[in-house]
Write a structure and sequence with these properties.
about 475 residues; alpha/beta
Length: about 475
């Protein structure tokens, strides 16, 4: 039995409790002591909600097994049963939680963060914890409010892979076989994505699908164009028709066409929206503040109701429940299907849905190339000196920044400034101390003008920024 510690502030770093998960540097901010306290708080929260069983999974990071062992011990001691899935993708943990564990599970993952990071994505009684629910865990730790110990939950291993692949292949059919290339960036999706798409009838060329928590080839983050260059080269030199890429824990999707064009997630969402709305006229489709402004009219024109949301997988899932949405997506690559699926984000499943759509065409790339497009930038990140500084600056800008030519200023999540011919966005990242910016416009001159507006506003606030070029 582990002894209860007092003065928990000495053993826990409050800054690891983020907006929609817990994430820190292993051995520094996310220590064994911190993991045990988090496990104890989660067990108490589970007990308070009447949850008696949780699924537990981990991605391919080197620290995952140790953290899983610590968490499992705390759950079991508090009388909560644990279904240990071993190494799985985050969506497989969600799938197990939904189908086998009453909607509760904890995924140990650092997602796309560097190798020294790890953390926890948490779902209890069907709800993904975010915002104040995450802070409640910290408050519980601070006041030593834990469940009674020396109870005896059970610990059992559960292999979910076969069920997961079977469920998807039972519900998705490709009209013709496809030859595809996939790049997992040595993240955990590499252990499963090839098997899934082969089971759907594809011929699969695998890049970096050996799980390696040091990420030796490139970073597992398909939101960054530099991480898709190997996949682009593979498509240009081989016989694959289309390319799919995944992040470190498999809940985000990147898409590349045969000729090397990156289909960013907001345009992927257009494809999915047209498909879903063809069967569900009037359905609601949610997208986050980073997405193209073309989505609003696209969704409306296809008979749907567009809804703008804050960025963050748990915020999107909460909005889906509130609005009863059939589909949601965000610019980082998370796509959430309420139609024919469970409403959680799954890069591998989203890839299967995309293949289902393009396989209906003689040229798999045609439906992707036909999607409307605007001139836009990838995400631009401006690092700040310390944790929390980015959020403080955004709060200041929301009060003080002026954009004289703006048609609309949306403060749902940072500042999204809409112009007649484009938009600019600045918001605080919820995972690292950076400012995130993105711009879109009808032409290069408009893009440069909008960027210059944001440079001026940031410089007036004392932030050295020059991304106008």
């Amino acid at each position: 039995m582990m002894h209860r510690k007092t003065h928990n502030m000495a053993h826990i770093a409050p800054e690891i409790f983020k907006a929609y998960d817990i994430r820190g540097i292993v051995g520094t901010t996310l220590t064994d002591d911190a993991a045990a306290l988090i496990g104890r708080a989660l067990a108490a929260e589970a007990r308070a909600l009447g949850v008696d069983t949780v699924a537990l999974g981990r991605d391919g990071r080197l620290s995952g097994a140790r953290l899983a062992q610590i968490l499992a011990a705390e759950f079991v001691a508090a009388g909560v049963n644990v279904c240990d899935l071993g190494m799985v993708a985050t969506p497989m943990l969600y799938f197990a939680a939904h189908t086998r564990c009453g909607g509760s599970g904890v995924m140990i993952t650092g997602s796309h963060n560097p190798p020294q990071y790890n953390g926890f994505k948490i779902m209890l009684a069907g709800e993904t914890l975010s915002g104040e629910r995450i802070q409640d865990l910290l408050r519980r730790i601070m006041r030593d409010d834990f469940a009674e110990k020396n109870l005896s939950g059970s610990l059992q291993n559960l292999d979910i892979e076969a069920d997961y692949i079977q469920y998807i292949t039972d519900h998705i059919r490709l009209q013709r076989p496809l030859t595809i290339a996939i790049d997992a960036g040595n993240g955990v999706a590499g252990a499963f994505a090839g098997k899934l798409y082969t089971a759907l009838g594809c011929t699969v060329h695998e890049l970096f699908c050996e799980v390696d928590g040091t990420f030796p080839n490139h970073h597992p983050d398909p939101a960054k164009p530099e991480n898709l260059q190997d996949l682009i080269r593979c498509l240009q030199t081989g016989d694959a028709e289309i390319g799919l890429a995944f992040d470190g824990d498999g809940d985000r999707l990147g898409v590349v066409t045969k000729d090397g064009e990156i289909i960013y997630p907001d345009r992927q969402l257009m494809l999915f929206a047209a498909d879903v709305l063809a069967r569900n006229v009037g359905a609601k489709v949610i997208y986050d503040v980073k997405c193209t402004r073309l989505l609003r009219d696209w969704i409306s024109d296809h008979g749907g109701e567009p809804i703008l949301s804050k960025t963050g997988h748990s915020f999107i899932k909460a909005a889906m429940k509130t609005h009863g949405a059939a589909l949601a997506g965000e610019m980082s690559g998370h796509v959430f299907f309420g139609e024919r699926w469970f409403g959680f984000d799954d890069g591998m499943y989203a890839g299967a849905r995309l293949l289902e759509i393009v396989a209906a065409h003689a040229d798999a790339n045609a439906p992707l190339k036909a999607l409307p497009n605007a001139l836009s930038t990838p995400e631009i990140n401006i690092p700040m000196q310390k944790e929390g500084e980015n959020h403080a600056l955004i709060a200041k800008l929301q009060q003080e920044a002026r954009f004289p030519e703006a048609r609309d200023i949306i403060t749902l999540d940072g500042l999204r400034v809409e112009y007649a011919d484009g938009f600019g966005l600045i918001r605080a990242s919820n995972t690292t101390p950076v400012l995130v910016l993105r711009f879109e416009a009808d032409n290069a001159a408009a893009l440069a003008r909008i960027r210059a507006d944001f440079v001026a506003v940031l410089q007036a606030a004392g932030v050295a920024a020059d991304f106008a070029a």
